[in-house]
Amino acid sequence: MSECIFFLAAVLFSVHPWPMFQKDLGHTGSTDVNGPAGSSLLWKFSLGSTTSSSPVVAENGTVYIGTNSGYIIAVKPDGSESWRFNTGAPVNAAPAIFTSGDVCAGTSAGELVVVNSAGAEKGRFKASGQFAASSSPIVDGTSIYIASDSNLYCINASTAKQQWLFRTSGSVDASPAKSTNYIYITTWWPGPNYIHSVSSSGSGFWQKEMGGGKSSPTYANQVIYAGSNDSYLYAYNTSGGIAFKKLLGGRITASPAVAPDGRILVGAWDSTFYCLDSKGDILWKFSTKGIIESSAAVDASGTAYFGCADSTVYAVSASGDEKWRYKTGHRIISSPALGADGTLYIGCWDQNLYAIGPGGGLAEDAEPCINTNDFRIEILNGACMKVSFSGRNGFWKTIRLVDVSGRTLISEDINSTDEMYVKLPRSKGVFFVVAENGRETNAKKLVLL
Fold first, then answer.
1. Range from 105-109, 139-143, 276-280 carrying the lowest mean pLDDT
2. Residues whose CB is less than 8 angstroms from the CB of residue 46 and which lie 6 or more positions away in sequence, other chains included
3. What are the tens digits of pLDDT across the range 311-321?
4. What is the b/e burial string over 76-115, where b = at least 16 CB atoms within 10 angstroms of the residue's CB?
C-alpha cells in the first residue's frame, strides 16, 4: 500500500508565524499581527515557473513555496534565494514547516518529500496514488495528515510509517483540517460528494453529503465550514448537524477564513468576496473583476487579504471597504501568508513570489525614486547603519530602529541633512528603520542575519 523510506525526527507546532496552509491546523487563516497598511512592494522574487502553491513562513522569516515545475524554494526575508530543491514532480500545494526547520510537501507523483533547512533531502514517503493537486500536509504532534487520490493518510512523524489510511467517498483535491480529536476532509468526484469526519485513530465518525469541490474545510469555534461546487457555503457542528447552508453567487473553491470575532470570509467564482456572520447571514460583499480561488488571510484588525484571477491582490477592511490593491502580472491562485512583522507573501501565475509589507520600497506600479523626501539604509560591517537622506533639507527630524513588536530600540535626532550613522543592536531578526518629523512617517524593513 505504501513505502516508507526515511525517518522524520521533528514535529510541527506554532513557533512559526505561518507554518502551513491557512496558518493553523483548522485553516482559519487568522493571525494576531497586523498586515500591510498599504500596497508597498518590498521585493519580487522570480520562481522560474508558474505556481499555485501558497507560501509558508518560518520563525526566522524564511519563506517556502512550491512550484509547478517541481521545486520547493526557500527565500530569505530580504528576497534573495536561500536554496531550491527539485522534488521531481509538481508541488502544487503549500508546504508545511517543522519546528526543526525541516519542510515537507506533497507532489503530484504521490510522494511526501522532506527537506531540511539547508535544502538537502531527508527522505520520501510513497503513497498508493497521487497527492491531490491542492492537498497540503498538516502536522499535529507525532502525526502528519495529507490526502492522496481517494485516501486520507496519517503518517507517523517519528518513524515515517503509515499509521492508518482512511478511504473517502471519492477523489480528494483539498487539504485536511483538524480539531483536537477529528480530521475533516471533503471529496469532489465522481460523486456523490461528502465531507468526512475522521477520528484521530482513523475511524469514520460521520459523513454528510454536500455539493463537493476543491474547497478545503475550515475548523473554528466548534464548527466546520466548507465551500462547494454547488455555490453553497456549508457549516456543520462537530456532531455532523447542519449549522447553516448559505447559497452564494458562484462556485466556491477557496477555503473559508474565520476572523477572531467569528466572521467567515470567502471568495467565490462570481468575482465576489463574502463576509458572513456565525449564523450564515451575509454582512457585506466586495466585488472584484475575476474569480476568487485564493483563500484569505485575516489580520488582527479584521482586514482580509486575498488574490484574484484579475491579477490583483486585495486588502479589504473588516467593514468591507477596500484598503488597497496591488496589480501583479497574471492571475493568482495562491493564498497569502502573513509574516511575524506583517509582511504579506503571495505567489502568482506570472512566476513570481511577491512580498508586500510595512515600509516597503515601491508602491503599486511605481518606479524607484530617491529624489523626494526619501532615505536609504546601508549596513557597514554588520555593526553600523548608514542612513542617507534625499529630498528637502531637514525634512526628517528623528530616526528610530523598531523591532517587530513595535518596541523602539534606538532613537536619534537627525543632525545632518545628508547622512548619519547609527549603531546596530547585536541581535538578529527583522527590524524597521523609521524616519519621522512629527507629521509624517516613512519606514523601511531591515533584516539582520
1. 139-143
2. 351, 352
3. 999 999 999 99
4. bbebeeebbbebebbbbbbbbbbbebbbbbbbbbbbbbbb
Q: List strand residue ranges (DSSP E) for 96-221, in order.
A: 96-97, 103-106, 111-115, 121-126, 138-140, 143-148, 151-156, 162-167, 177-178, 182-186, 193-199, 204-210, 218-220
Domains of the chain from N-terminus onward: 3-363 (2.130.10.10), 375-448 (2.60.40.3080)
**Confidence label for 361 from pLDDT (cuts 50, 70 and 90):** very low
Mean pLDDT of all residues in 154-171:
84
Which bin fits 119, alpha (ψ -120 to 50), beta or left (φ > 0)?
left
The cell for 145 is 495528515
Q: Give the H or E element holding residue 85.
A: strand 81-86
In degrees and rounded to multiples of 5, residue 412 shows phi and psi of: -135, 145
Question: How many percent of the chain have pLDDT more than 70?
Answer: 87
Mean pLDDT of 252-275: 97
Antiparallel, parallel or unpaired: β 242-247 and 257-258 = unpaired
The DSSP code for 373 is S
Residue 416 pLDDT > 80, yes or no?
no
Whether residue 103 contacts residue 115, with contact meaning beta carbons closer than 8 Å, is answered with yes
Cβ–Cβ < 8 Å for 434, 443:
yes
Cα separations in angstroms, 168 against 2, 65, 152, 196, 353: 17, 28, 7, 7, 34
